[in-house]
Specification:
42% of the residues lie in helices and 22% in strands. The protein is an alpha/beta fold and 156 residues long. The protein has one domain: SPOUT methyltransferase, trefoil knot domain (Alpha/beta knot), CATH 3.40.1280.
């Protein structure tokens, strides 16, 4: 299974770019993995619905019916590293061609994207900056791969 992480990144930080490269490099020996930072539109808070609709269209163009979609959502299922690894394993055994991880935009995602998701996961009860959320997700995805391949990274 190929994996792709889709997000709407608006900030540019050197530390973040280095971190994404580092974790992508660490993940690649286990699975084909890529990160796609999608462009969004600039919108004020009072135009949040317009922005969500725009991002919905962009996301729906990127995902197919044969994708296993995991959405990061503040109202999603709370998990831990071992359960997340099991979730990734089940996705990889689902027969789907591609796994898609989605981090929505600043105002979240539309109901259509939520409905399309096979699974919704909450990373934290804390509100995380998009860059931090993506870094946590990348680290947890790498950790899941080491758990699944029995590589001593996660202390059981």
């Amino acid at each position: 299974m190929k994996w792709i992480l889709l997000d709407f990144k608006s900030a540019k930080e050197e530390w973040f770019d280095c971190s994404v490269q580092l974790y992508t490099k660490k993940i690649k020996p286990f699975v084909h993995f890529e990160v796609q930072h999608l462009k969004t539109m600039k919108a004020d808070r009072d135009e949040s619905a317009l922005k969500k609709n725009y991002e919905e269209k962009v996301l729906l163009e990127k995902i197919s019916t044969d994708d296993f979609v995991i959405l990061l959502d503040e109202k999603g299922t709370k998990t831990n590293s071992l359960v997340f690894a099991e979730t990734i394993s089940k996705a990889q055994q689902s027969g789907k061609k591609r796994g898609v991880l989605i981090i929505g935009g600043a105002y979240g995602v539309s109901d259509k994207i939520k409905d399309r998701s096979n699974l919704k996961i909450c990373l934290s009860d804390l509100t995380l900056n998009h860059l931090v959320a993506e870094l946590v997700l990348l680290e947890q995805f790498y950790r899941a791969q080491t758990i699944l391949h029995r590589i001593p990274y996660h202390n059981l």
